[in-house]
Amino acid sequence: MERTTESPRLGGRRILLGITGSIAAYKAAVLCRLLKSAGAEVRVVMTPLAKQFITPLTMATLSKNPILVEFFDPENGAWNSHVSLGEWADCCLIAPATANTLAKMAAGVADNLLLTTYLSARCPVAVAPAMDLDMYAHPATQQNLRTLAERGVRIVEPAEGELASGLTGKGRMAEPDTIAAFVGELLSEKKKSLQGKRFVVTAGATIEPIDPVRFISNHSSGKMGYAIAGELARRGAQVTLVSGRTALPVPEGVDRVDVLSAQEMFEAAAEAFERADGGVMCAAVADYTPVAAADRKLRKGDGELTIALRRTRDIAAELGARKGRRLLVGFALETHDEVAHAEEKLARKNFDFIVLNSLRDAGAGFRGDTNKVSLIDRTGREELPLLSKTEVAARIADRIEALLAPEA
Ligand code: C5P
User: Fold this and answer.
1) Where, residue-wise, is CATH 3.40.50.10300 in the chain?
2) Where are the beta strands (DSSP E) in 176-317?
3) Which fold has domain 198-407?
């Protein structure tokens, strides 16, 4: 079994690794392994010449995905769509990148699958140049690198050292661990993609008083909701976090409103939702509250004690009923018939999508720092791997962004 040490930056991220025809292609094997063991999904596109330097079999085995080289498979005619590859990737990393490929990228030449994928990718792109010192220093190469950098391509500087030619100088591809760290950094830089948007996020457990001392509550830690509020704020949104009692610090840039009961949470959430573009209902709201909280501590007796409970307001369902064009995301924590229950809530509460976590999955649910969820909307279900709650929050924010995008 392969050991994975999930990195918060690379875990669950989709990396398209482009390999071009350079001696340094052998390092792409180690790089691929590093990315995989950090929890990333990797798909490899090779230029035709790259196959002379490292075999597709090696890269397919390490990436656990078939290697793509040609526009279509000559055996069966299956089409390798550069557009869908570009859409799939969270980051396109070309390592090693030869002088030839860099020149074609700068000029917009599209004569192989890797180049067409680069031209249609909308995700961040990084290149790790690898070439002889004179090719690297040549004004044409330097100009191409500047052009690419001006267009937003990130360059992993080559190192100085012994080169395949026997010469010594600058042009040696950066080491795989340096490149993997660079990509991790790149993926954690959040663009201010939600600037000008407002959200309300509910988080944590509500507290329903029985008397001045006791209450009904649940195990929610609030971590998932806090991670979402933090992520939306990092992307530039104005976030009101309506929070039940937790021990968590307020995420940077987030405006927190502290509440105790479901009724208080409803009032705060409904008010903030009025002015919002969307809401994420992450709180574990009590479904029942004592009909009347005693104003003095209940005395214990010998017999059984019955406390009359009444239903609380369903905050999500009420916001769902009045949401109009606003976006609403819900959560479902289930122990059985998970998907059916989540789909029922998606429809009844009028969510745009619902995040399902099952208590049956190891590493999911309360208190922990990881979660394993599926994202369900009216078109289907996307199952995510076990991820840190921060990564899950990033995936949820990605969906929200896509739904708010003008063309959506
Ligand atoms: O019906 P259930 O409690 O399983 O639904 C879960 C979803 O509804 C979550 O998004 C939760 O935050 C929200 N909810 C709510 N108010 C309630 C009960 C649930 O906002 N009273």
Assistant:
1) 198-407
2) 198-203, 208-209, 215-216, 238-243, 254-258, 278-281, 288-290, 309-311
3) Rossmann fold (3.40.50)
Ligand 1 atom at minimum distance from 312 CA: 21
User: Residues enclosing ligand 1, CB less than 6 A?
Assistant: 202, 262, 281-283, 285, 287, 312, 314-316, 330-332, 345
Residue 341 CA, closest ligand 1 atom number: 4
CB 12 within 8 A of CB 39: yes
Contact present, 259 and 209 (Cβ < 8 Å): no
Instruction: Specify the domain boundaries for CATH 3.40.50.1950 within the chain.
Output: 14-189
Nearest to 18 by CA among 36, 42, 45: 45
**What values do phi and psi take at 17, rounded to 5?**
-100, 115
Catalytic annotation present for 218: yes
Cα 284 to ligand 1 centroid, rounded to whole Å = 7
List the chain pLDDT tens, one digit each, 408 residues.
444 556 667 888 999 999 999 999 999 999 999 999 999 999 999 999 999 999 999 999 999 999 998 887 777 777 777 778 888 899 999 999 999 999 999 999 999 999 999 998 889 999 999 999 999 999 999 999 999 998 889 999 999 988 888 888 899 999 999 999 999 989 877 557 898 999 999 999 999 999 999 999 999 999 999 999 999 998 889 999 999 999 899 988 899 999 999 999 999 999 999 999 999 999 999 999 999 999 999 999 999 999 999 999 999 999 999 999 999 999 999 888 999 999 999 999 999 999 998 777 676 666 677 888 999 999 999 999 888 888 899 999 999 999 998 754
Candidate of 331, 336, 343 to mutate for ligand 1, largest count of ligand atoms within 8 Å of Cβ: 331
CATH architecture of 14-189: 3-Layer(aba) Sandwich (3.40)
Phi and psi at residue 373, in whole multiples of 5°?
-130, 165
